[in-house]
Amino acid sequence: MKIIVAGGDGFCGWPTALYLSKQGHDVAILDNLVRRKIDNELHSNSVTPIATLEERVNKWKELTGKEIKTFVGDLNHHDFLTQVFTQFKPDAFVHFAEQRSAPYSMIDREHAVYTQTNNVMGNLNVLYAIKELAPDCHLIKLGTMGEYGTPNIDIEEGYIEIEHKGRKDTLPYPKQPGSFYHLSKVHDSHNIQFACKIWGIRATDLNQGIVYGLHTEETKQDPVLNNRLDYDGVYGTALNRFINQAAIEHDLTVYGSGKQTRAFLNIEDTVRCVEIAAENPAEPGEFRVFNQFTEWFSVKELADKVQKVAKEEGIDVSIDNMENPRVEAEDHYYSAVNTKLRDLGLEPHLLTDEVIKDMLQTVIDHKDRVIKDNVLPSVTWK
Ligand code: UPG
């Protein structure tokens, strides 16, 4: 299959591009490299040193003989996107190319507007490109479990059957996102669903949980293929942050009570889920939603696990229940369905002490790169 991985230079996109290439697909990366520029804006970095995109794909070719073509440019430049579609003629378009940090979107008006313009308009351009240039191309779009929020009922996969005043219908599951970033994904979902309906496009929305981990079989093959690992208060996500904090003997930053519960998956499952979606495309006109996660944990449970593994490695860290910089429910019901990807063959890599230990070791190897000023959260919702 000819597959474009948009956002293929990023934390999820890069390992996905390598994995799909290894599986024999003809992969092209489309990326505007903005994530690297945002590191400069935030005076931050990846704990793991990362090579340039050019070095990365050259090394992959040297090791495997497989070529990954690169298109450096922006989804919001329609002429560029037109060229990419005309030249590459994709069968599937995997769309990771969005601003993905909730705190970044909450910095101020400018960052909220950037996030929503970049994400919503970029995605709309992709929808038009598919309609006009590759109508059979399957859009595999990264959504988020954060679209649903934390309702007091079970979270279904995209749709819910509702009975109202004696009548029944299956409707999109209600959305209660918790940041301007998460809202951008809700807006995307609506636009995609509408495009499927009016133009007959085929699309899968992958409502992904929080991704932890770093390495995959492919990124481990050479240091030049390293994946990035974020730890700062803006781009670092819960578990990865706690592991980084343990490595530098910093208190684990649990926001509030830590009872807030979220869905999680290992990066090794992210790449497989995308493959499953690509190999089992949605029907023309179908807007399909998969909940892409394998387990859920409260933030406190994660901190406890990291604290325990760190202790076994001789590192003593405390858990700091700091004031929550976000506006979010801390005490809530959480139960979400995730059967569709499992039914199509996903075999989860679960969160074991071994997984935490492995990551901890990698971070310890690079801990001199951690910029300590960036560890505490700097963005508040209010
Ligand atoms: N949290 C802490 N301490 C920290 C960091 C986070 O308690 O140091 C809490 C936070 O308050 C929240 C939860 O952990 O309740 C999850 O936050 P985080 O790990 O930052 O994830 P999200 O903000 O939900 O976003 C990530 C990705 C996003 C993706 C989403 C999937 O950045 O792109 O859509 O996970 O759920």
Short characterization:
The protein is α/β, with parallel strands linked by helices and 382 residues long. The protein has helices at 13-22, 34-42, 53-64, 78-88, 102-105, 109-133, 180-199, 238-247, 267-279, 299-312, 339-343, 353-365; strands at residues 2-6, 26-31, 69-72, 92-95, 138-144, 159-164, 167-172, 202-208, 210-212, 252-255, 261-266, 287-292, 295-298, 319-322. This is UDP-sulfoquinovose synthase.
Structural commentary:
The chain has 382 residues and is of the alpha/beta class. Helices cover 38% and strands 19% of the residues. The chain is built from twelve helices and 14 strands. It has helices at 13-22, 34-42, 53-64, 78-88, 102-105, 109-133, 180-199, 238-247, 267-279, 299-312, 339-343, 353-365; strands at residues 2-6, 26-31, 69-72, 92-95, 138-144, 159-164, 167-172, 202-208, 210-212, 252-255, 261-266, 287-292, 295-298, 319-322. The strands form four sheets. Strands 3-2-1-4-5-8-12 form a seven-stranded parallel beta sheet, sandwiched between helices. It has a three-stranded mixed beta sheet with strand order 9-11-13. Strands 6-7 form a two-stranded antiparallel ribbon. It is globular, with a radius of gyration of 20 Å. The N and C termini lie far apart (46 Å). Bound molecules: uridine-5'-diphosphate-glucose. The site of uridine-5'-diphosphate-glucose (UPG) has 21 residues, from α8 and β10. Residues 3-291 form the NAD-dependent epimerase/dehydratase domain. It comes from Salimicrobium album. This is UDP-sulfoquinovose synthase. Belongs to the NAD(P)-dependent epimerase/dehydratase family.
